[in-house]
Specification:
Pfam families: SNF2-rel_dom. It comes from Hesseltinella vesiculosa. One of its GO terms (molecular function) is ubiquitin protein ligase activity. One of its GO terms (biological process) is protein polyubiquitination. The chain folds into four domains: about 170 residues, no CATH class; about 270 residues, Rossmann fold (3-Layer(aba) Sandwich), CATH 3.40.50; about 50 residues; about 120 residues, no CATH class. The protein is built from 26 helices and 20 strands. The chain starts with a strand and ends in a 5-residue tail after the last helix.
């Protein structure tokens, strides 16, 4: 039990001498004992040592007297905080008192943490968030100094109390050890590297596997078997491992028997139930994340051969209401490598039967899905793709039980992937499910299965560990841990040690740099060929460089030697400048590949030569710049007209508004001609060419968006011109211009701008 010693306690001996036990005090004591109950959890204790030397008789009296705890606190602005803990007789006579004062400049640094903690305890007790009470076992000792012990308790049913326990009590009384290792991606990969051993585990190389596993591959297979709950014996048979008796990830047991999860702020008294629930997923699979080219596929095939559902009695011991059982391993891969999987299986394990599932849309409408599913489940391995998962999610989500008027007509077929509990589900290139909110990830998590495996050479695509959440969500090791909680594991130093150990246990990654003696990579050669720019490319690149230097202010960076300057009035100027420079350098590098890349455009139309692409981009950029300038000039005419209105120069304002209206209408007519021409081309184009249609839709959308902006400007010209006619008392033209503005407004609102 965590104990804090409250030094400097004061004993009021006169009140202690005056106390006499009577029936009223005994009734109070019995009432208090009954109130304590059993629903309170003791988080820790406070011990109040009595420095004053008193006779033995008074010491016995101190431990017999029924004391009640009173807490008071006071905040005096920013000057100080005061807290007092007082133990009194039933007659409210103080017996023992402990008090602290916290002042930022005056409290010693070594005492600040504990002083703040004591003040927080007193405030929480005053708010009935926690209870501070006399410890029942306080009999005097001849060997220990005289002291009173107080229990700090809280109720699990009080949400505020549970929050206070996790934010204040637990960090103070049971702090987590600090994590002093680097948390970089490179350090993480090296941390996952298992010990490199030259010994080949021959028992992990099944006879049906025609390939010979390397030592590290055989060690991978042994680890994967262990993650599925088996040890492999020398004879090649599997032996079930002892049931896991550990608490789930991030749970820990306190001295008082309470089990807590600091990450999700959950607490539980029934550790047996926690362990029992965790046993169902303790040996549930994992993540094999060897570097690319280290033969992960062969290791997976060896696992399938060694731990086959037909050899196991697990299905007979478990119940799956509403589902059939499939003794197959479901392998989900990208479409581009599904046939590579089929080829690898035929080469290395021809005894395994393989079926390919192309999706429910590939089945005739009159196909019996359950019967088709039975034929799939008869195979050892079923191959399908992430595209199938993405298209099949609507046939996998739970359907509503609400009856429909035409229920038989609209009944949705169920995906055959959802009719069975699969023996094993393997995601190859598992980074495809890194986003937990994607449709692919949702479908993968919905598939019923016994074992879950993620196989990937690139478990993280970004510069942080968030990508791992989707993988662990699929393997079902996280329990109630949400994405926000998972992020704390690698950003909060107090959780990083547990994150390190958890990933080490559930994820395995071999790096080529440590396996030089086991793999034989042929010598590689690098040839650099310099290709000069064409004249058009060079002109485009020079324009980009000029824009870069004017935007980034290279001379200023040279003047400070490209190092952060001393603190100035704008400390963000240096990092902002570097950020802009980084964006420009990316664009310049991309332009060396192809101009359309640096322009940030996805060119979906037919392939063009580089010179054609550069010319098109430069022309389009120039046209956009000209249009922007013309729009600004028309807006300036509007502003000039408004300034003349302020001066009551109505005639000059009218001239400027008419001039601007004419220019805007001419530009709108030009845009309308371009829009009609593009729409006509789109109407008569080859509809089978979806790429061309998409590109033309993009151009048409930009034209309509530009047209919308010019229409808004013309509406302002009409409206302001009508106002001038009002001031000039020309009511016929006033009404005419207001009607024109109203017609244009209806036209704008009838066709929303497209972006």
């Amino acid at each position: 039990m965590a104990i804090d010693v409250v030094s400097g306690s004061t004993l009021f001996t006169e009140a202690l001498k005056e106390w006499k036990p009577d029936s009223e005090h005994h009734r109070h004591r019995n009432k208090r004992t009954k109130r304590d109950g059993t629903d309170l959890i003791t988080a820790g204790q406070l011990r109040l040592p009595i420095d004053t030397t008193i006779p033995a008789v008074l010491a016995n009296t101190l431990h017999q007297i029924p004391l009640t705890v009173h807490c008071t606190s006071e905040l005096n602005g920013d000057d100080y905080e005061y807290a007092c803990l007082c133990l009194s007789t039933p007659a409210n006579r103080p017996i023992v008192q402990a008090e602290v004062v916290f002042s930022e400049p005056n409290t010693p640094a070594k005492d600040r943490s504990w002083t703040r903690f004591f003040i927080a305890l007193i405030k929480a007790s005053q708010s009935n968030i926690i209870t501070i009470s006399r410890c029942p076992d306080t009999s005097p000792s001849n060997t220990q100094p005289l002291a009173l012990t107080l229990d700090v308790t809280f109720s699990l049913s009080n949400r505020k109390a549970v929050t206070f326990f996790f934010t204040t009590l637990l960090p103070h009384w049971h702090p987590l050890p600090s994590f002093d290792q680097p948390i970089s991606i490179d350090a993480f990969y090296r941390h996952l590297q298992p010990p490199v051993m030259a010994a080949r585990i021959t028992k992990c190389n099944p006879p049906q596997l025609l390939a010979t596993l390397t030592p590290f591959q055989s060690q991978n297979v042994e680890w994967m078997l262990q993650r599925e709950g088996y040890n492999i014996l020398d004879c090649g048979t599997l032996e079930r491992r002892q049931p896991c008796t550990d608490l789930p990830f991030m749970w820990e047991r306190m001295d008082n028997g309470l089990c807590v999860n600091r990450l999700t702020r959950q607490a539980c008294l029934d550790s047996d139930q926690l362990i029992q629930n965790f046993q169902q997923r303790a040996y549930h699979g994992g993540i094999l994340a060897d570097e690319m080219g280290l033969g992960k596929t062969v290791s997976v095939i060896a696992l399938i051969l060694l731990n086959a559902a037909k050899k196991s009695s697990m299905f007979s011991k478990l119940s799956f209401p509403g589902y059939k059982t499939a003794h197959s391993t479901l392998v989900i891969t990208p479409s581009s490598i599904i046939h590579q999987w089929e080829s690898e299986i035929k080469i290395h394990a021809p005894s395994l039967s393989v079926a390919m599932y192309d999706g429910i849309h590939s089945l005739p409408k009159d196909t019996d899905v359950e019967q088709f599913g039975d034929s799939l489940a008869d195979h050892d391995i079923v191959l399908t793709t992430y595209d199938v998962l993405r298209n099949e999610v609507h046939y996998a989500r739970p359907t509503s039980d609400r009856s429909l008027r035409h229920d038989s007509r609209h009944r949705t077929r169920k995906s055959p992937l959802m009719l069975y509990v699969w023996w094993r589900c393997i995601l190859d290139e598992a980074q495809r499910v890194e986003s937990p909110v994607s449709v692919t990830s949702e479908m993968a998590c919905l598939i019923p299965r016994i074992y879950s495996w993620g196989v990937t050479g690139t478990p993280m695509k970004s510069s942080n560990f968030s990508d791992l959440y989707g993988l662990y969500q699929f393997t079902d090791y996280l329990g109630d841990i949400r994405a926000s909680h998972f992020r704390q594991l690698f950003t909060d130093p107090k959780f990083q040690a547990q994150f390190w150990s958890f990933t080490k246990a559930t994820m395995r990654r071999n790096l080529k740099i440590f396996l030089q003696d086991q793999i034989h990579i042929p010598p590689q050669h690098r040839y650099v060929i310099h290709i000069p720019f064409s004249a058009i490319e060079q002109h485009y690149y020079n324009d980009m460089w000029t824009s870069c230097t004017s935007d980034v202010d290279i001379p200023w960076l040279d003047s400070i030697d490209w190092k952060p300057p001393s603190p100035t009035s704008s400390p963000s100027h240096f990092p902002d400048t570097l950020a802009r420079l980084r964006r420009w350098l990316t664009s310049l590098r991309e332009s060396c590949v192809h101009a359309t890349v640096s322009a940030g455009k996805t060119r979906q139309e037919e392939v063009r030569s580089l010179d054609q692409a550069v010319l098109e981009i430069m022309t389009q950029s120039t046209e956009e710049s000209i249009e922007e300038i013309e729009h600004q000039m028309a807006s300036n005419l509007l502003q000039q007209g408004g300034m003349n209105e302020v001066l009551k120069n109505w005639t000059q304002s009218l001239v400027l508004y008419r001039q601007g209206s004419t220019k805007v209408k001419e530009h709108l007519q030009s845009l309308a001609d371009k829009t009609n021409q593009l729409s006509s081309e789109q109407l008569h184009s080859d509809t089978s060419s979806s790429d061309n249609n998409d590109a033309k839709n993009n151009r048409l959308g930009k034209l309509l968006l530009s047209q919308h902006g010019w229409q808004l400007l013309l509406h302002r010209f009409y409206f302001y011109t009508a106002g001038i006619y009002l001031m000039m008392e020309d009511h016929d033209n006033e009404e005419k211009l207001y009607d024109m503005a109203a017609d244009l407004r209806r036209q704008i609102l009838s066709r929303p701008a497209k972006g």
